[in-house]
Specification:
By secondary structure, the chain is α/β, with parallel strands linked by helices. It is built from eight helices and eight strands.
Length: about 240
């Protein structure tokens, strides 16, 4: 039995994988995305320490419903920061609760884990923030290459993947960058879905409470035209 840090959970999540799901939010993340919706999950110790038994008991309350409606998604933060803890929860959710499992990850730490770690993961929700290496570094504070290498590895494992891309005006909506991302995705055979998610600044209050400067306070969501263009470009890849 392992223990780890849990930020929160949502019992009726409808946008974290197929169906209605139990979304477990864990803490710790190596990225510092300028538009992050959950900056309160960055630091590991901001979560509440839980054992895997405690977490599985909570999930188990809804297991009968989740088996029919959706499953379990572990998100964050970045779940792979706590790979031992998260891996045990996934393994037991499959073996004991018979749930469909999904990992929501930025992929940066994926290559430090063996292929066998992903045996209990049915679906990976992979967030690719930017395809331009310099813009990616400026946007999240970490290099792009480990993310792309992880995407290629998932393809080699034939692991089903949903790609997620947050459309941030002026940062991730450039047509050339979107085309570059589409070209990369076209080399992969395991992409089941591409989601273009519009930026919103509803997390501004979290940044304020944490006393972290937030440069997107007055930024508006992308226009319908921008969303349509991005979806047209990226949806052509699968």
């Amino acid at each position: 039995m392992t223990s780890g840090y849990v930020h929160s959970f949502e019992t009726g999540a409808a946008s974290d994988g197929p169906g209605v799901r139990f979304a477990l939010f864990v803490t710790g993340c190596p990225f510092r995305c300028l538009y992050c919706h959950n900056p309160d999950t960055w630091e590991l110790e901001r979560g509440q320490k839980k054992t895997s038994d405690e977490v599985l008991a909570e999930i188990g309350k809804y297991a009968s419903f989740l088996r029919m409606a959706g499953g379990l998604t572990i998100t964050g933060g970045e779940p792979l920061v706590q790979s031992a803890f998260v891996g045990e929860i996934f393994k037991r959710a499959k073996s004991e609760l018979k749930l469909h499992t999904a990992l929501d990850t930025n992929g940066f730490l994926g290559n430090i884990l063996p292929d066998s770690w992903f045996d209990s993961v049915d679906l990976v929700l992979l967030d690719i923030k930017q395809i331009n290496p310099q813009k990616h570094l400026e946007l999240v504070g970490r290099p792009l290459e480990p993310v792309l290498e992880f995407a290629k590895r998932l393809n080699a494992m034939k692991k089903p993947v949903w790609i997620r891309h947050v459309l941030v005006p002026g940062y991730t909506d450039n047509e050339k960058d979107l085309t570059g991302l589409a070209e990369f995705l076209s080399t992969l055979q395991n992409i089941e879905r591409v989601e273009v998610l519009p930026f919103h600044n509803m997390a501004f209050h979290k940044w304020e409470e944490l006393k972290i400067p937030y440069k997107f306070k007055d930024m508006r969501p992308p226009s319908n035209e921008a969303l349509t263009m991005a979806r047209k470009i990226l949806h052509a890849t699968y």
